[in-house]
Write a structure and sequence with these properties.
Chain A: It holds the Pfam family TMC. The complex is a heterodimer of chains A (about 850) and B (about 170). Chain A is built from 28 helices and 2 strands. Chain A is mainly alpha-helical. The chains are: A mainly alpha (about 850), B mainly alpha (about 170).
Amino acid sequence: EDKGEDESKEEDNGSQQNRASRRKNYQRKNRDGKKAREEGSQKKDRGKTAPTKDQKESENKEKKTTKRGKEGENKQKKDRKNSTSSASSNSSDEESLSEEELAMLKEQVEQKKKLISTMRNKPWRMVKKLSVLREAQDFVEKFEGALGKGKGKKLYAYKMMMAKKWVKFKRDFENFKTQCIPWEMKIKEVESHFGSSVASYFIFLRWMYGVNLVLFGLIFGLVIIPEVLMGMPYGSMPRKTVPRAEQATAMDFSVLWDFEGYIKYSALFYGYYNNQRTIGWLKYRLPMAYFMVGISVFGYSLMVVIRSMARNANESTADGDDDNFIFSWKMFTSWDYLIGNPETADNKFASITTSFKESIVDEQESNKDENIHLRRFLRVLANVLIICCLCGSGYLIYFVVKRSQTFSKMQNVGWYERNEVEIVMSLLGMFCPPLFETIAALENYHPRIGLKWQLGRIFALFLGNLYTFLLALMDDVNEKLAEEDVVKNITHWTLLGHHNSSAGNDSTVTPPPLDPADVPRGPCWETTVGIEFVRLTVSDILVTYITILVGDFIRACFVRFVNYCWCWDLEAGFPSYAEFDISGNVLGLIFNQGMIWMGSFYAPGLVGINVLRLLTSMYFQCWAVMSSNVPHERVFKASKSNNFYMGLLLLILFLSLLPVAYTIMSLPPSFDCGPFSGKKRMYDVIQETIELDFPLFVAKIFSYVANPGLIIPAILLMVLAIYYLNAVSEAYQRANAELKKKMQMQREEEKNKRNNKASTNPMLQDLEDLLTPSTKTESPPKQTEDKKIESPNGTSPVRKPGRGEVLDGSPMAGGRGAAFIPPSPVFVTQPRTLGVRAPYPGQPRPWGHPLGPVPGRGRGQPCY
Amino acid sequence: SVSHSQITRLYSRFTSLDKGENGTLSREDFQRIPELAINPLGDRIINAFFPEGEDQVNFRGFMRTLAHFRPIEDNEKNKDQNGPEPLNSRSNKLHFAFRLYDLDKDDKISRDELLQVLRMMVGVNISDEQLGSIADRTIQEADQDGDSAISFAEFVKVLEKVDVEQKMSIRFLH
C-alpha cells in the first residue's frame, strides 16, 4: 500500500512538473514581451529535457548552482547572455512547439478528468483523496476553457481578467477599510513613539467612543427627538416652563452654567417629559420608549462589554504560541520596504526602537533570578501597606461623610465644613496614587503586571469616591421626597382654590387657566439627580483638560525653554517632562463612563455631552501626548487583550446599574414631572402598556412568567448551566495546555535531531559533548551520563519502541512484539530519553546527540 | 516571468531614474528613490543591484534584481519544489534577504553583522550594551549548530512562519 502511494506521489510530482512548464508556456504564449519570450523558452527547454524525476532533480541542482554562481561573477553573466540570445534565436520554431504543448496540455486535462472519475477506487487515504481531487478539479477548470477555441477561450480570458480585477479590488478595499478606521493613523503614531501600552489607552478610548455613539443614537433617536418634534411645546404646561421666580435670571450665563434656568426645563432632563401616554400623530408611546431606552442602554452596554471581553479572550489564545524567534523576527522583518515618506520612516524607526525596548523589558523579566523569599516577603509587605492605606482612606471618607451629615443639620457652618468631603476626597485622590506607586516599587513586578495592580488599587480608592457621592445623593433624594409630599398638597389646594375663586366670581364663564409658570411645583428629585451627574461630568472634563494643559503642556514648555537659563539641567533633572499616566487616564475614563451610565436615565442629554468629551479628548490627548510627554522609562508591551480594562468597566457598569435599578424599582416618581408622573412606580408603565395595547392572553402569559415560582427555577437552571460550562471550559483549557506542551517538546526534538544530522563529524560531537555541561548550567552532568548509557538502544530512527515499554521492560518491547506497535504518529519518533534530555521545554538551545550512529531524518520533510 | 505591461512600466521607470541618460543606472540614481534613501538597509539593497566591482547597471540587471520583489501569485504558489525556480520564489527571496545581512559573504550572519544592522535600525536610542544583548539573543534563538552565527539554513528556519512573500514584495505593476 505504501509503495503504491509513493509511486502515485512520484507520478503526481512528474505531472505537476510538466504542468508547471506547460503553464509557463501558456503564459508565454499569451504575452508578447520579448523578455518573457526568452525566459519562457528557456524554461521550456528545461522542462522538455526532463523525462524522469531523478534526472530532472540533478539538472535542477546544476542549474541552481550555476545560477547562483552567475549572480556573483561577471564573466559567467556574459555566458548567460549568450545563452539567452541563442534562446531567442530559437524562437522561430516556437509555434510548433506550442502546438505540441497545447496537445500535451489537452492530454493532461483528460488525464485529470479521468482521475476525478476514478478517484473513488483509489486506495488512498481520505485526506489525500480530497486534496488530489480538489487540485485536479482546479486544474481542469483552469485549463479547459483555455484549450477550447473561440468562445471558451474568450470566456477564459475574461475569467482571468475578472480574477485579477477582483484581487486588485480586494486589496483596494482592504486599504479603504484601514483608512476608514477612525484615528488609526493617530494611534499608530502614538504607538510608534510611546509603545503599545499607551496606545492601548487610546484604543480603549476609541472603543468607548463607539459605544457611546450607539447609546447617543438610541437616546436621541428614540427619546429626545420624538419629544422635541411631537411633544407639547415649551411653555404649554408647568413642567415645561421656567417658574415665575426664576424667569428673571433664567438666561444668565452663571445660571445656565449650573444647568439651571432654561437648561433645566429642556428635553435634556427627565423632568421635561410629559406623562401623556401617546404623543403626536404617530401615537408614539413616549413614556414606554423612555423606560425601554433606559433599560436598553444598560442592556446594550453589558452585551457589548461582555462580547468584546469574550472576543479578546479568543484572540489572546489564538496566536499566543510561537515566541521562539521574537528577536530574530524583529531583526529581520521589522522594516517595511514600502515606506517612502520621511515622516513615516521616522515613525517606523521609533516603533522599531520601542518594540526592541519592549522585548528587552520582557526578556529581563523572564530571566530574572534572585532571592525568591525576599521577593515574596516584599510583595506581602507591600500589599499589607496598601491595604492599610485603603482601609485608612475608607474610614476617613466614612468619618467625613458622617460629619458632613451633622454639619448639614446645623446652621452657620463655615466654608471648610461645607466642602470638607470634596476637599478630603480630592486630597486622597491626589496623594494616594503616587503613594501606591512608591509602595509598588517594592514589589518589582513587570511593569505590565504592575500597571494592573496599580489600576486595581486606585480603583478601590475611587470606589470610596463613588460611595460618598451616591450616599450624599440618596440623602438629597430622601429629603426631596419628603418635601414633595408637602408641595403636592399645596399644589392641589392652589389649583382647587384657583377654580373656586374663579367659579365664585362668575360661574358661567370658564375660569382663565392659571399660567403654567405660576403653578407651584414639587422639587422633582429626578431632575436634581440628573443635574448632579451632568455637573460632575462637566467639572471632570474641565479638571482633566486643565490638568493636561498645566501638568503636561505648561510643564513641558517650562522645561524646554527655561532650560537655557537655569542652574541645573531641567530636562534630565527634577521636573523633566511628564510621562503619560496610563492608569490614571484609564480609570478616569472608566469612572466617567460609570457616571454616564448612572446619569443617563435622569438626564438623557448626558450621553451627548460625553460623546463630545470623548471626541475632543481623543484629539486633545493625542496632541498632548505627542507634544509634551516622554515615553516611559521602561516601555512595555501591552497585553494582547486589554481584558483588564474591560473587567473594570464591567464592574463599574454593574455598580452603576445598582442605584438606577434601585430608584426605578423602589422610589415613587415625582407627581408633577417626568414621563412617569402619576404612577406609583416607574415600571408600572410596562404593565399599563401590556394591559392597554396587547391582547388579553399576552397579559396572562406575562403574569405567569413573572411568577416567582417560574423565575426561581429559571435562575437555578442558569446557575447550573454556568457551572457546567465552566467545568467544560476548564477541561478544554487543560487539554490545550497539554497539547501545547507536546508540540513544544516535539519542536525541541526536531531541533535536536537536525542538530545531530548537522554534526556528523565525530570529533565535533565529542567536543560538543564536552562543552555541553559548561554552556548549559541547568543540565546536571548526571543526565548526560544517562544519555550515554541509554543511547545505544536508540538506534532505530523511525520505529522506536515507546518510552514506557522500555521503562517497565515488558516482553512486548523487543523482537516481534514491536510489530504490534501501531503506525507511529510523529511524536513517537522522539528518543526515549526525552524526559531527561529536555526538562525545560522552552530551552532555546538543544544539546548535541552524544554518541552512537546518527539517527535518520525520521518522517519529516527535509527543511532545506 | 514578468509580463509585458510590467516591463514597459518598469522601463519607463528605469529611464526616468536614469539621469545620465546612458542606459545605465549609477548608485546615485538609486539614492534618489525615496524608499531606498530612507531604508536603513537601502545601501545594501542598492549594492545588490550592482554586480561585483561594477558601478553601473543596465536594464537587464535592473530587472533581474527587481524580479526578486515580484509578489508570488496564487497560481504560482502551489508549484512544486523541483521545477525551475523563478527569481521571486520564496527561497530566492529569502536568499536575497540573507545576502543583505551577510556582508562578508561567508554564508553566515555573524554577531558583528547583526550589530551593524541594529545600529542602522535603532540608531543611538539604545545603548551599545543592550544592542549587544539583542544580537546575542537573536543568535541564540536562531542558532542551531552552535557556531554562534546564523547560516542560511537557520535563517530560513527562523523565517519559516513569516510571510516573506508579502514582506519582500513591491507592488509595482498591476
